[in-house]
């Protein structure tokens, strides 16, 4: 019966939900195992009636039985939480989709984010960071691009995260392009981001881009970070760019950071 309802373009309404649930229990008692489709239909029905507690009970049950909820299941649950102004729980569920290894890889994160318009902006940034940490840069780019498409302009944190991710992932040109875009918007790269980008550009031999980044650092930032200063000195020394080495040392002295002797 449950499948028949959906086949007719319907989900169980309040008048038939009890009947559907009774049938569901009969299936269990008879040893008939419900599938993902059956669980999702019932979860949707409970959510439509505002009974999020029972909806999550079914979600937990289907996971325990080895069934993986799909994008429809999660979209339904997140939408229901949003409608009840439970945005913090919706955010946690959204982030669970990344951190929980049991979540299927074909979940459409953009769709889920679209359905979570009331969740804090930082949820998307957290997803980007998570994808970058796992090396899933295509997914990170999709989330980043979806922010732009919905006029949620990425901030300094988002740019730093995705630039560093692309440096780790080996897409150095993409990282450099995002760096230029970031600087043009007036954002300041974090030291960790700058170090990752400078090292990556040097490693792949992009000398023009490297010179541009270093010149920008000396022009717009104070060289007060010992690790950054060390990287700048080592790379310029290896490049034989003694003028730039002198500039870095001068900037370090002016900013109160002198290289250790020895």
UniProtKB/TrEMBL annotation:
The cross-references to PROSITE patterns, in alphabetical order and at most eight, read: PPR (PS51375)
Q: Which GO terms describe its molecular function?
A: mRNA binding
Question: Which key words tag this protein in UniProt?
Answer: Repeat
Q: State if DNA-binding is listed as a keyword.
A: no
User: What Pfam families would the database entry show?
Assistant: PPR_2
InterPro entries listed in its UniProt record = PPR_rpt, TPR-like_helical_dom_sf
Positions of PPR repeats = 35-69, 70-104, 120-154, 155-189
- Superkingdom is Eukaryota
Please report which protein family the annotation says this sequence is part of: Belongs to the PPR family. P subfamily.
Per its record, how is this protein called by name? Pentatricopeptide repeat-containing protein
Question: What is the species listed in this Swiss-Prot or TrEMBL entry?
Answer: Hibiscus syriacus
